[in-house]
User: Fold this.
Amino acid sequence: MSLDASKARVAVTGSVYVGPLTATAPTTASDPIPPEYADTGFVSDDGITESYDEDTNDVRAWQNGQIVRTLISSSNATLKFTMIETKKTTLELYHKGSTVVSDGADGYRLDVKPPAPDPRRFVIDVLDGTNVERIYVPFGEVTERGEITYVNDEVISYEVTVTCYPVNGVVLTKFSNDPNWGYS
Assistant:
């Protein structure tokens, strides 16, 4: 058994970017983020959760009722994070289909509408020193939203879950400049 502590990675910091479906796709972990993407800003200290939910059906044989195969009947990839900056990007991502506009005077207005389909592209950079893991979602959408709580001892936050839809059979792509990705 080979143990190597230098191969352990920590998600020390990073960024979440959101862009339109026409935004340029990244091709490496180190490409600059294209200008069509907006940074959502600070994410809560809960970080980002990547999840896969799969429904399975066991196939049993007549002989002794043994499981001979497990079939995946559905699969769902999601990314969950909480934005803690209040700005145009986060408000419009959280309030699907709504737009922040100038009210013509000295402020802004957000008419919150019933949620509408709002698919987008996402890029998430996860950094550990010079090691970068970049997650690219070519077709994703906010499908769950947490509650917004207004209290005097907590930051106003916007929790979202992004469902990653397949494009040519791929729900997301991961890039890395970490040389350990090439070792067993």
